[in-house]
């Protein structure tokens, strides 16, 4: 199965957008998330080349038995901005990254991890710990920094994006606003698919906030 793309967190906001664009580009997409198939009344959700797998990668490894042998690329979008009683940074960022990247490494599959440069202290700490784990591996890993991900139809995020863009031009706020400089979800998805279209032989960082 050529060009088979594996996305962890494919049923989320960013993941759904990447899945749609990947299908258009001819990928067969496997999405793994705790929710599995999203409850959306959209044609692409039931596309013949779209496979949804409901699995908690931290709790069990049954998802590994549902994948084809020749995965082209692995993308990890799993994460939470704020913890809750059910989800912690350890269980939602650090552990999934460790499990998924180990799987990718053992199967020699290039791996992309979506990180961040600014956010709640625990969130950034967890992201940095995940990054450190990746840099110690020999597998080809790409770490992407995206900033605030927006969408035209989400008014609140659009307002936040405008504030960040204005703040980035002010001397006292410029540095901090630049760390989370907004990017539209369509542009982020296209950029990620462009990155994986020609996999590098060495690990790298891609900063989309600059």
UniProtKB/TrEMBL annotation:
Pfam families: Epimerase
Molecular function GO labels: protein-containing complex binding
InterPro entries: ComplexI_NDUFA9_subunit, Epimerase_deHydtase, NAD(P)-bd_dom_sf
Domain NAD-dependent epimerase/dehydratase: start-end pairs: 6-97
PANTHER family found in the cross-reference section: MIOREX COMPLEX COMPONENT 2, NADH-UBIQUINONE OXIDOREDUCTASE 39 KDA SUBUNIT-RELATED
Protein name in the entry: NAD-dependent epimerase/dehydratase domain-containing protein
